[in-house]
UniProtKB/TrEMBL annotation:
Residues 264-274 have a biased composition (Polar residues). This is WLM domain-containing protein. Residues 14-215 form the WLM domain. One of its GO terms (molecular function) is metallopeptidase activity. It comes from Candida tropicalis (strain ATCC MYA-3404 / T1).
Length: 298
C-alpha cells in the first residue's frame, strides 16, 4: 500500500561564498524556482568585474537581479552604486538567461554611472576605458594587483597548481623586454608619427554618438532611476555577508561575555570563602566541645 507523503522533500540550500570586495550584498528574485542559478550568475559577473572594481575603487552596496515589465530595460543604477540592478532573463522567457558577456557589459555600463550620471562624451569615454581594461585582463593576460579566492561547491578552495608564487611572477616581469621600438627622422630627435590616411568624418561621428545615446537611453534608465518601480528587498533571495560588522560584533560579544563571567567568578570565590569561613568556624566549635580535655602532669 502506497501512502501519500506530507510536505516537500527537504532540499539543502546552496551555500555561496562571500561577495567580492566592495560589494555588500548579492540577491536574485526568489519568486523564480531557479533563483539559486540566477544568483550564481550574479556572483560570476561580480567575480569577472572584481579586478576593475578594485582598481577604480567602486562601491556597490547591493547587486540585484531585475525583471522589469519594460522589455528594453537592461540595467539600473540607483544613487551612484547604492543599488545596481541587472536583467538576467530575456523579456519573452523568464526561464532562460542572457549570455554572460551581455550581463558583464550591462554591469560595466552601470558601474560607469557611479562616476558619471548622464550619457555624455565623458561617460562613453570612461565606459570604453573600462571595456578595454576588461579585455586586457581576461583576453590579453594583463597583470592585476587583485586576488580573489574562489570556492567551488563541494571543494575547500583553489588547487595548489593554479596558484602562482611571487618569485615566478617576479621572474616573469623581469624577463620582459625593456626597450620600445620607435622611428625618428635621420639627424634629428623628432619622432615619425603615422598619419591617419582616412580622416574621421566629424558629422558621421556626431551622428553615431547621438544614435548610441538614444539606444542606451532606451535600455538604461539610471538617469531617472527614481521614477522606476523597484522591487522591495523582501522579493530578493539575498546573501548577506558583512565582514567588518561581523568581526566587530563577535569581539563585542566576547568582551561582554568575559565581563559577567569574571564578575561571577569573583562572586563565587567570595561566597566560597565566606562559606569556608563559616564551616571552619562551626567545625572548630564542634571540635572544641566534643574533644575531651586532657591534662598531662610531669
Amino acid at each position: 500500500m502506497v501512502k501519500q507523503g506530507q510536505g516537500t522533500y527537504p532540499v539543502k540550500k546552496t551555500e555561496f561564498p562571500p561577495p567580492p570586495a566592495n560589494i555588500g550584498r548579492i540577491g536574485s528574485l526568489k519568486r523564480y524556482p531557479d533563483c539559486d542559478y540566477a544568483k550564481s550568475l550574479l556572483y560570476e559577473a561580480a567575480r569577472l568585474v572584481a579586478p576593475i572594481i578594485h582598481e577604480y575603487k567602486f562601491k556597490v552596496s547591493n547587486l540585484y537581479e531585475m525583471f522589469p515589465k519594460n522589455a528594453n530595460l537592461l540595467g539600473l543604477n540607483v544613487n551612484y552604486g547604492q543599488k545596481i540592478m541587472i536583467r538576467l532573463r530575456p523579456h519573452h522567457n523568464d526561464r532562460s538567461f542572457l549570455p554572460m558577456n551581455e550581463i558583464v557589459g550591462t554591469f560595466l555600463h552601470e558601474l560607469t554611472h557611479n562616476k558619471f550620471g548622464p550619457h555624455d562624451k565623458k561617460f562613453y569615454d570612461f565606459l570604453d576605458k573600462l571595456k578595454e581594461r576588461y579585455e586586457d585582463i581576461h583576453y590579453r593576460g594583463a597583470s592585476v594587483n587583485y586576488y580573489s579566492e574562489q570556492n567551488k561547491l563541494g571543494r575547500g578552495g583553489l588547487p595548489s597548481s593554479s596558484l602562482i608564487s611571487v618569485r615566478e611572477k617576479r621572474i616573469k616581469e623581469l624577463s620582459k623586454p625593456k626597450f620600445k621600438t620607435e622611428s625618428k627622422v635621420l639627424g634629428s630627435d623628432t619622432r615619425v608619427s603615422k598619419q591617419n590616411t582616412r580622416p574621421v568624418d566629424m558629422r558621421k561621428a556626431m551622428l553615431e554618438a547621438a544614435e548610441r545615446r538614444l539606444r542606451d537611453s532606451k535600455w538604461c534608465h539610471s538617469e531617472n532611476a527614481q521614477e522606476e518601480q523597484l522591487p522591495s528587498d523582501d522579493e530578493f533571495d539575498i546573501e548577506i555577508v558583512e565582514r567588518d560588522a561581523f568581526k566587530k560584533g563577535s569581539r563585542e560579544e566576547t568582551k561582554s561575555e568575559e565581563k559577567p563571567r569574571h564578575s561571577m567568578n569573583v562572586q563565587a570565590k567570595s561566597q566560597s570563602k565566606q562559606i569556608e569561613i563559616i564551616d571552619l568556624t562551626s567545625d572548630s566549635e564542634e571540635t572544641e566541645s566534643n574533644v575531651p580535655e586532657i591534662i598531662v602532669i610531669d
